[in-house]
Design a protein that fits this description.
Layout lengths: L28 E6 L14 H9 L17 E3 L4 H20 L6 H30 L3 E6 L5 H11 L4 E5 L19 H8 L5 E7 L4 H8 L5 E5 H9 L4 H9 L5 E7 L21 H13 L3 E8 L10 H18 L1
Parallel strand pairs: 1-2, 1-3, 3-8, 4-5, 4-7, 5-6, 7-8
Helix pairs in contact: 1-10, 2-3, 3-4, 4-5, 8-9, 9-10
Length: about 350
């Protein structure tokens, strides 16, 4: 006899994401884990992010005071793709040489290593785009769980082609508008540059929480003709200290976005106390409540979240569940508001 699912009971060992029993064909939202971090330039560990989030998700209570019972529509996470994990291992071996040298610096050997990394990234991008495109064709909502931020490009591509004219809401400490950072075309620090240059279907990119950027990135955004809008963390925090409410700021942030919105959420957009082991932590950032208010405001404003990614979650090198715990709870908020 099949035992009915009890959303208030403890998750069973080996159960799915959030302890749910759903298969891919039963789920309205399907999560694609992408354990890839070859271009991480400072500190590793994000390839273990999907597994850490999955493990921690089984401790998340399924009733949410803002979104109700999103689990009732079905949420499933696909198995970790071994081919992506294999590409990550191979690409990291090549990337380490280039990162240690600070780039290719005219060296044929390092240029060859960078090409090997780019080829691996291209295969990962193609895998993600194909898998996400298949999900949205089947009428599913899709979310990508990384891995470093480079893995978002395939998902951005699949969603932009499905929803031409969509906007992108990016929460991130960095704008990720660098050109082939450290010699890698598909660097985690270049993902929004690549999206802006390669995906004309994206009508606008709104960046929130940016507090670590190069002058070239700021110029690129400034010269985009309003297509890329940056809300720097220092300016937002300063205005709040002078009395502007976060709700007013959020309304201003969302105003230029179209009806269809894709959210790309780098966990380092949060206060690093919430994600201490992420690849490139930066002081400042959003609180958990500010972040989830922003996500919810997209839907409360009458817009629709068509898809999302959550990237750069990394467990501590000695284990520990804090980063995965925060990531899992943020993932459930993203899922809940996407399914409304």
């Amino acid at each position: 006899m099949t035992v009915p699912f009890d959303p208030s009971a403890a998750a069973l060992p080996g159960s799915g994401v959030f302890g749910l029993p759903h298969r891919e064909d039963e789920a309205a939202l399907v999560l694609l884990p992408v354990p890839f971090e070859a271009t991480t330039s400072y500190r590793g560990g994000t390839a273990r992010g999907p597994e850490a989030i999955l493990s921690a998700s089984r401790q998340v209570d399924l009733f949410d005071v803002e979104t109700g019972r999103p689990y009732e529509k079905g949420i499933a996470m696909l198995p970790l793709p071994e081919e992506v994990a294999r590409l990550d291992r191979l690409a990291r071996a090549s990337a380490e040489k280039v990162i240690a040298a600070g780039g290719t610096d005219g060296s044929q050997e390092l240029a060859r290593a960078a090409r090997e990394v780019d080829e691996a990234c291209e295969r990962v991008n193609a895998f993600v785009e194909e898998r996400v495109a298949g999900l949205v064709r089947a009428g599913k909502r899709a979310g990508v769980v990384g891995g470093d931020h480079s893995v978002a490009l395939g998902s951005l591509s699949a969603h932009a082609r499905r929803h031409p004219g969509m906007g992108v809401l990016q929460v991130d400490a960095h704008p990720d508008l660098r050109v082939a950072y450290q010699g890698f075309t598909y660097s985690h620090a270049s993902v929004l540059y690549n999206a802006a240059r390669r995906l004309p279907e994206i009508s606008r990119i709104v960046q929130v929480g940016v507090r670590d950027l190069s002058e070239e990135e700021q110029i690129f955004a400034r010269d985009s003709g309003g297509r890329i809008l940056q809300h720097h963390d220092a300016a937002l925090a300063g205005a709040r200290l002078e009395g502007e409410s976060w709700a007013s700021q959020v309304a201003r942030i969302l105003e230029p976005l179209p009806e269809d919105v894709y959210i790309t959420f780098d966990i380092d957009g949060l206060d690093p106390a919430l994600c201490p082991h992420t690849g490139t932590p930066v002081p400042g950032g959003l609180s958990f409540q500010e972040a989830t208010f922003l996500i919810g405001a997209v839907v409360r404003s009458g817009r629709r979240i068509v898809g999302f990614d959550l990237v750069e979650v990394a467990p501590g090198p000695a284990g520990g569940e804090w980063d995965g715990n925060v990531g899992a709870r943020l993932l459930y908020k993203l899922a809940g508001w996407t399914l409304l």
